[in-house]
């Protein structure tokens, strides 16, 4: 006997169809967001749904569609603030389209990372994946997903072949804007704390920053590689500020490391921005919580995740993918950057 999809007394799709005066098939089309229902009928069915407080069964809808109505989001982001915005963005579009979301953290750098993603997709029976960086940048993953017939849409700082679609996060260009901002303020002793140079996001941010400085016939006076953590920002800042001549500006490749720079500056009595300008990257809420508030590059995480999810569901449902421009990353000047006291 098939499992019941409602408890005794709960309204069913049959009740909705009867109240709206339409067929069960027509109600099903509305629940599945089909365009094959005119506006008047759709309004009448929605009114019946609201009146009866009907809640469609995910299991029943999934069986009818021959899919699970589950979307997987795979990531390896230790920054909870960034991850929260991404999850909310994926969830907004998934809910709007009648899907649920399962999140999975992938051990990037592990030799079995691609297999881990495939195993997750198989056991969870998701209809497709939204793949976040740095997972999206793993060599061989797009081909592995294609081989397993798993629809996937990625977000990445570079174009990658093999995914159903790739939403670009133009981080090289944005990091160049940071360099130009500091140059325009008059800084010439500029240092950088990069992200880990085995990650595409970190490589792109460093490249954009260095290229923009080169346009002004300059190079960073010093670079220290970090791992995007607070501890790395603190250690790098201590190294950069240890001996004269100290930089008048430091670009940290994410807001968390920039927070470490501000912490060290405070410990050493270095006034920000009077004696040291500090710029981060991400535009997370951390930038507003710090004192002084942080000049940073705002990445619209939620909007990007929402757009990627829209592309994925269109791909799953066999719809033509819409042309969507990736949201722009933008430099947001704030209290932590100003002209140097002396060049």
TrEMBL record:
GO molecular function, one term: DNA-binding transcription factor activity
InterPro entries, A to Z: HTH_LacI, LacI/GalR-like_sensor, Lambda_DNA-bd_dom_sf, Peripla_BP_I
Keyword Manganese attached: no
Metal-binding found in the keyword field: no
Keywords (A to Z) from UniProt: DNA-binding, Transcription, Transcription regulation
SMART domains assigned to the protein according to its UniProt record, in alphabetical order: HTH_LACI
Occurrences of domain HTH lacI-type (ranges): 11-65
Gene3D superfamilies according to UniProt: 3.40.50.2300, lambda repressor-like DNA-binding domains
PANTHER family the record matches: LACI-RELATED TRANSCRIPTIONAL REPRESSOR, LACTOSE OPERON REPRESSOR
Protein name (record): LacI family transcriptional regulator
